[in-house]
Every structure is written in C-alpha cells, then in structure tokens.
Design brief:
- The termini are far apart.
- A three-stranded antiparallel beta sheet has the order 2-4-5. The chain has a two-stranded antiparallel sheet with strand order 1-3.
- It has one domain.
- Strand 4 (87-94) and strand 5 (97-100) form a beta hairpin.
- The radius of gyration is 17 Å and the shape is globular.
- The longest helix is centred in the middle third of the chain and has 12 residues, at 73-84.
- The chain has four helices and five strands.
- By secondary structure, it is an alpha+beta fold.
C-alpha cells in the first residue's frame, strides 16, 4: 500500500488510509520516539485526529511511504520515523481493546492483522475473581 504524507494531511486521514488496508491494526501517533520493542508512554500520545503532519514533523515535507504486507511492524514504525520524523506505534485489535504491538514487533503487518481478526471470534467476558478467603 502507498500512504501519501503531505503537510496539510491530518493524523485522522493517515490513520483512515492505513485502516482501509489493515482494518485490525491502528496507527497511533506520539510526540516523542520510542525504543525498539518498547511501548510509548501515554503522556506523549497525540489523540487529536485533526492535527496536520506539518505540526508533527520537524522538517515538514511531502512524499510517499510504501508499506508491504510482509514488512515487520518495527520496520513500518522506523520508516515513518526515518522518512518523516513521525513517531508512530502500531496497535492491534484484541477483542474490544487495542494492544500496543511492541512485544510482537517482529510480526509482519499481515500477521498482525490476521491475529487481530482472529481475536474477534473470542468473546471476552468479565468474570469475578475467586475469593480464596472462602475456601477451606
């Protein structure tokens, strides 16, 4: 897939383009970088989908990113960083929640998306934990 990055494009537009190809993955933007196989602190989360690339990039410019299904997660994140100075983290759908993929950064985009899709078949119900004080 090709994602066109332009100064006037918003985070939301980039996220929507990505989600069209990978509906069980989500690109999340942060204001600071993260280390390989590590998560990004929530305090650096950029959650305003209307922020433009120009606001996030240190040296704003336009260009294309080519993401292939067989690319590992860490490589996708690195491409955003190296080409545009954008700090992104991939999240994968897991039931009703989104998990940061830092532990599974070696999995490809396709593998991550398949795992996310498979999680929809599982129904996660809240069960009260056992109270061991009531046992003999």
């Amino acid at each position: 897939m090709k994602i066109h990055i332009a100064k006037d494009k918003t985070i939301g537009q980039i996220q929507d383009e990505f989600s069209q190809s990978y509906p069980f993955l989500k690109l999340v933007f942060f204001s600071k970088p993260h280390k390989a196989y590590k998560g990004s602190p929530a305090k650096y989360l950029v959650d305003d989908r209307n922020i433009t690339m120009e606001s996030l990039e240190k040296k704003p410019h336009s260009g294309d990113l080519y993401l292939e299904p067989e690319m590992p997660t860490w490589q996708v994140e690195r491409l955003f960083e190296e080409e545009f100075g954008l700090h992104v983290q991939l999240f994968r759908k897991s039931g009703n929640t989104w998990l940061e993929t830092s532990v599974t950064d070696d999995l490809t985009l396709e593998e991550q998306n398949v795992k996310g899709k498979a999680s929809e078949r599982h129904h996660f119900e809240y069960v009260n934990p056992i109270d061991y004080r009531e046992q003999d």
